[in-house]
Write a structure and sequence with these properties.
heterotrimer, A mainly alpha (317), B alpha+beta (595), C mainly alpha (306), A: 317 residues, mainly alpha, MetI-like fold, 12 helices, B: 595 residues, alpha+beta, Dipeptide-binding Protein, domain 3, 7-stranded mixed beta sheet, 5-stranded mixed beta sheet
């Protein structure tokens, strides 16, 4: 087990380097953009500027490979660079925003699990019944309706009917849990509903498959109650793919947070990425994507270890 | 079993379809109310189905000033830079920083001064930190007497000390690199103070309450002094130099002489201010009342427009201003669902939406082509049916019609008609005469926040005469403008008519930087601009600027798309003591709120 | 043909899904003929005077804010969605197969390095990647196709690679290599047909997700070019802006998108069920081990876990 963890951690490093290269290359796909933005900013203030001087100011006059190694070297020393257009270091920006996105992501995950597991179990237990179908249809509808459209409904109509508006001022959880939750619950619930639609189907599938196993059939034959079968036997085995699925779900959650953060005014990293991308603020985007990727890698690693721990029969590569 | 499944699915699907049709017919009933008209700048009145005028000031606040309460303001974005010389577009710093002058919002005589003019003179600028001023062209001096009894806020790094003339000198010197320890102008993104304030040669401070600006020879005249009296220079003190780089970025050290003290700042989310108890100001309308009235101010950034609507409707936000905080359909929603006595609008002058045609490139070189394109656009229809405005269409030239530089009032009917015309057949013929019987193709660059539908509509009009317009979306205005700067770039860009400010033209003239490929390289135009910039008196400058404005319009360098985008400020009835004009730096402390 | 017969007989819902998808494809191909208000010069016809009108005999689904006929817009939108869907799916599959199979077959250092890149790639959240690529490339349907397929393809290559490895190491392959060193080309020729079922499973079922991603991109401002009819745009722009005055504008694309998601999900499930009864049921995020086991069982070999 220890050897496995060590091996996985080691493999993390080249993957991380790959992420760095990918992110850097993506940003440089249209190298002109940040330079153009700076040239415009200067020229519109009446300062004569041309691309050469702007490039020098941004450190982009060197060849791409050299820029990459400079960035990489800085990273090793813990310096993520400075934002091009805000007078802040990238790390400061990320530091303030990361906990916000994390909080939203975790809340969404927890709520979606609370919805999908019971529903999935229920559907599996009552396979092919009317309730099974209706819940599944609702699940598919939830999956297929764009989240921003439902969020707009949620934003506009309660305000018109009941004068209700979600809070816009961010207060951290430590300072005031109640205020904080008031702000995070609406988007978390929305996101969870979207997620639950998908997870529901997965849970149902896995539980069904588990229930087909011979040992379950034996248990039936032995007269074990349905509840025990469901919760004790099936659920435990069904948890394995669900746990694995969390890794993928988290990735989707972060993606979904981009839209939800934008709509509910939550100052998180998703919103920051969109803003910085609009402004062609490369260092910030690079930093954010890097942190996201690192986070997901760690979560996947933890999930794999948990997987192995739950089911020692399975050997992992 | 199988039949059950199919039945269930069928039932669900049919229910969905039924809902659809219900929604359709429900929507149909609302249609009659849906075509609400939004007001135009010509004081057209917004009437919803109940016939209420939404541009009339409504106030639930008492007629007499009351102290206390919180003011909640929406902001587009935060500047995130606390340097006193920073680019002041976002305007939030005016809560804690002040300058020598501020634009008069008619407090002293609202009958006399329109105070929406860009033409800034002693008549229209009121003194903020400056009490009085006087120019002596022979001695080349401009002497400013500072107000007595002004103290900095009781916050780091000033800790409540009095304001002195040396602070003013310091503030100007560092931007120009002419003293107070600065030999080079300080580098600040998005600003070019040395060019803008080039008329200042040096600054003297004979005593703690007097500042003397020594003017350059060629700027010692009416226009030079006019250009000196700007409100963008924030006054701070030398303590700023002693701060570390970290502290300069820390909001704990952002302080000035202003009426509100910044006491909380969450990056790109919100700012919270408390009243400065030691503020020097008194209300000009009620001379015994010490300012400010409200106890707290909240500035909140809300990115999503439907969230803004929500916050306004539920009373969390009292005031929204900027580039269309609510779009026209959201305003319609507001009108139709919230009592008219809870809010009101102010429509601000904006430019007419247009596409700038680069007249140095084919095919736009030929004025016939430009005119043909204008003839193909049904501007009247856009004005009345797309924007749902009544009254006459807005047509603008180079400068905004509210400024003294605009010549629109003097244009003949023929200039106006040349923009209002809609004649696709004549357009096709004109195109053929110019050598394009089969039309042509071109690309327009717009940026994401613009109304893409308007441009799609324009494209469909142009398609009728055989011209294909492709629409490219740039992520931000900067990238779009970049396409506009470059003369060789064949793409046209979005341009507001009437949106060029004198400062921009001025800076372009001084630095020689290409402001715009749209009006570049026309000798006659360049001559007019040059004359305007080198004029000695304001009267001369206005004359030449007007000529440039008219020439610009006659040349059809921009393809105007009819109607102007309403920049509509939205006010809650909670606000009192404010007539809506010029939401500017001096307004915050002079407003009270309903308790 | 056999496949279709089995589909409709045993899995009628999946068959219904296929029928819906085919319906959309027909709409897409024949849009210029079916639409009551076809495009002129590549641009939809506008009729601003009649904007935002509800269902009338001339405009069965009403009009939008520019006066465009919503029914025609939906039909042309189907074309955009179908093009997007089909091209993305095909491209995704090609990318997955190329990367997965080559990685498995060539093996060694190439495999090691390539897989690290794939690992890295899959760790970047999908929407972010999409956002960045679209932000860099600009709006447009070609860019969107590129931006969606490449990441999805790379992510999918993992599964293909696992399956390819199992096949590669299976008994009869080893046998044939004993008889004579096989060239890479031969190995590929053997491997690919054996992982066909897996490939087909991946194909179906991803269509709905692609459409949703396009709608989200339009919302954030990075989708198709303005003027290109697309369901995502109708919901994002018209549906949201005129939610109060013209709610039907969002309902039609909403239903269309849901139908497509539903149809592709059901069809995908049915394909999966038919091709391997033991994998019955919905989408599961299985580890590569499980897939290997299943595939190996499918091929009649013993369980090959390394």
């Amino acid at each position: 087990m220890g050897k496995y963890i060590a091996k996985r951690l080691l493999l993390l490093i080249p993957a991380l380097i790959a992420v760095l290269i990918i992110v850097f290359a993506l940003m440089r796909m249209t190298p002109g953009s940040a330079v153009d933005a700076l040239v415009y900013k200067l020229t519109s203030a009446g300062i004569p500027a041309d691309r050469a001087s702007a490039e020098a100011m941004l450190g982009m006059d060197k060849p791409a490979v050299e820029q990459f190694f400079i960035w990489f070297g800085d990273l090793l020393r813990g310096d993520m660079g400075n934002s091009f257009f805000q007078s802040e270091s990238v790390w400061n920006i990320i530091k303030t925003r990361m906990p916000v996105t994390l909080e939203l992501g975790i809340m969404t995950l927890l709520i979606s699990l609370c919805i999908s597991i019971p529903c999935g179990l229920y559907c599996a237990a009552r396979q092919d019944s009317v309730s099974d179908y209706s819940i599944r249809v609702v699940g598919v509808v939830m999956m297929s309706v764009p989240v921003f459209w439902i969020a707009t409904l949620v934003l506009i109509y309660p305000a018109l009917w009941w004068q209700y508006a979600p809070p816009t001022h961010y207060i951290s959880f430590i300072e005031s849990p109640a205020e904080n939750l008031r702000m995070f619950l609406p988007p978390a619930i929305l996101g969870a509903l979207m997620q639950a639609g998908m997870e529901l189907r997965m849970v149902r599938t896995v539980v069904l498959e588990t229930m087909r196993q011979d040992y379950i059939r034996t248990a039936w034959a032995k007269g074990v109650g349905e509840r025990t079968i469901l919760f004790k036997h099936s659920l435990r085995n069904a948890m394995i793919p669900v746990v694995t699925g969390i890794g993928g779900a988290l990735s989707m959650m972060i993606g979904g947070s981009v839209i939800l953060e934008n709509m509910f005014n939550i100052p998180g990293m998703g919103a920051q990425v969109v803003n910085s991308l609009d402004n062609r603020d490369y260092p910030v985007v690079q930093g954010c994507v890097l942190i996201f990727a690192l986070f997901i890698m760690i979560v996947n690693l933890v999930v794999d270890i948990a997987y192995k721990w739950i089911d020692p029969r399975v050997e992992l590569k | 079993m199988k039949m059950n499944k199919i039945r269930v699915i069928a039932i669900v699907l049919i229910t969905c379809l039924l809902f659809t049709f219900a929604a359709c017919s429900g929507g149909g009933a609302a249609d009659g109310d849906a075509k609400t008209k939004a007001p135009t700048e010509e004081q057209e009145v917004a009437k919803d189905a109940a016939g209420t005028d939404h541009t009339k000031v409504v106030s639930a606040a008492s007629a007499e000033p009351t102290y206390g309460g919180t003011l909640n303001v929406w902001k587009q974005e935060f500047q995130n830079d606390f340097d006193p010389g920073a680019d002041t577009r976002a305007n939030q710093e005016t809560l804690w920083y002040e300058s020598l002058w501020a634009m008069d919002w008619g407090l002293n005589d609202s009958e006399k001064y329109p105070f929406t003019s860009e033409y800034i003179t002693g008549d229209i600028m009121m003194g903020q930190l400056a009490e009085s001023w006087e120019a002596d062209y022979d001695k080349r001096t401009f002497t400013v007497k500072l107000r007595e009894g002004v103290n900095f806020q009781d916050k780091e790094p000033y800790n409540g000390r009095p304001l002195v003339a040396a602070d003013v000198k310091w503030s100007y010197d560092r931007l120009l690199g002419i003293g107070s320890g600065y030999t080079e102008p300080v580098q600040l993104m998005g600003t070019n103070w040395p060019e803008q304030l080039q008329m200042i040669e040096s600054i003297d401070t004979p005593d703690d309450a007097t500042v003397v600006f020594n003017l350059r020879q060629e700027n010692s005249n009416e226009t030079g002094v006019n250009d000196l009296m700007i409100q963008e220079i924030m006054i701070a003190g030398h303590e700023w130099d002693e701060l570390t780089d970290e502290q300069k970025k820390d909001w704990h050290y952002a302080a000035g002489t202003g009426p509100f003290i910044l006491d909380e700042y969450v990056l790109d989310n919100h700012m919270h201010f408390v009243k400065n108890e030691n503020y020097y100001g008194y209300d000009e309308r009620y001379p015994d009342n010490k300012l400010p009235y409200v106890d707290e101010v909240n500035l909140t950034v809300i990115a999503e427009s439907s969230n803004r609507l929500t916050q306004f409707v539920s009373g969390e936000i009292d005031f929204m201003s900027g580039t269309n905080p609510l779009n026209s359909s959201e305003r319609a929603q507001l009108d139709a669902s919230v009592n008219a006595d809870k809010y009101w609008y102010l429509n601000k002058n904006t430019g007419a939406i247009a596409i700038g045609l680069k007249q140095n490139n084919e095919p736009f070189k030929d004025i016939r082509v430009r005119q043909a394109l204008q003839m193909a656009i049904n501007s009247a229809e856009i004005h009345s049916d797309y924007y749902k405005l009544s009254g006459d269409m807005n047509v603008m030239g180079l400068f905004n019609t509210s400024t003294d530089y605009s010549d629109v009032a003097n244009w003949g009917q023929d200039v106006y008609d040349s923009y209002a015309v809609f004649d696709p057949d004549a357009a096709k013929k004109l195109l053929a005469d110019a050598g394009y019987p089969d039309g042509f193709e071109f690309t327009t660059v717009i940026f994401g926040a613009l109304d893409q539908n308007l441009f799609t509509l324009a494209a469909s009009y142009l398609a009728q005469i055989g011209v294909k317009m492709n629409i490219e979306v740039a992520a931000n205005p900067m990238e779009m403008e970049q396409a506009g700067f470059s003369k060789d770039d064949p793409r046209t860009i979005f341009k507001n008519a009437g949106f060029t400010t004198l400062i921009r033209v001025q800076l372009g003239y001084i630095t020689g930087a290409t402001m715009d490929a749209v009006f570049a390289n026309d000798p006659k135009f360049d001559e007019l601009v040059k004359n305007a910039m080198t004029a000695n008196t304001m009267a001369d400058r206005i004359k030449y600027a007007k000529d440039a404005d008219k020439y610009f319009a006659e040349q059809h360098w921009i393809l105007q798309l009819g109607g102007s985008e309403q920049m509509t400020d939205v006010f809650s009835a909670r606000l009192g003591g404010y007539n809506g004009e010029q939401w500017y730096r001096i307004v915050y402390p002079r407003i009270w709120v309903a308790q | 043909m056999n496949f279709l017969k089995t589909l409709f007989k045993k899995k009628p819902i999946g068959g219904a899904g296929l029928v819906i998808l085919v319906f959309f494809v027909i709409l897409a191909i024949a849009s210029d003929w079916i639409a009551p208000y076809p495009m002129v010069n590549g641009v939809m016809q506008s009729d601003v005077i009649n904007s935002l009108s509800p269902s009338t005999p001339e405009h069965l689904f009403g009009t939008d804010s520019l006066g465009r006929d919503v029914l025609s817009y939906m039909i042309y939108g189907a074309r955009t969605s179908v093009i997007l869907g089909i091209t993305c799916t095909v491209l995704t599959t090609i990318v997955s197969v190329v990367i997965g199979v080559s990685s498995a077959v060539i093996g060694g250092k190439f495999d090691l390095i390539l897989q690290r890149f794939v690992d890295g790639w899959t760790c970047i959240p999908g929407i972010l990647l999409l956002l960045i690529i679209m932000g860099m490339l600009g709006n447009g349907i070609l860019q969107l196709i590129f931006a969606i397929s490449i990441p999805m393809g790379i992510a999918g290559s993992r599964m293909i690679r696992s399956a390819a490895i199992s096949v590669k190491d299976s008994g009869y392959m080893k046998m044939s290599s004993i008889l004579g060193a096989p060239s890479w080309w031969k190995m590929i020729k053997h491997v690919v047909p054996n992982i066909m079922p897996l490939i087909l499973m991946g194909l179906a079922g991803s269509l709905g997700g692609i459409i949703l991603m396009e709608a989200s991109m339009n919302f954030l401002g990075y989708g198709v070019e303005p003027g290109t009819p697309s369901w995502g745009y109708l919901i994002t722009d018209q549906g949201r802006s005129y939610m109060y005055q013209a709610p039907w504008l969002a309902v039609y694309p909403g239903i269309a998108i849901s139908l497509m998601v539903f149809a592709s999900a059901m069809f995908g499930d049915a394909v999966r069920d038919i091709l391997d009864p033991r994998l019955k049921g919905g989408v599961g995020s299985y580890s590569s081990e499980k897939i290997e086991k299943q595939v190996a069982r499918m091929l009649g070999g013993r369980a090959l876990i390394k």
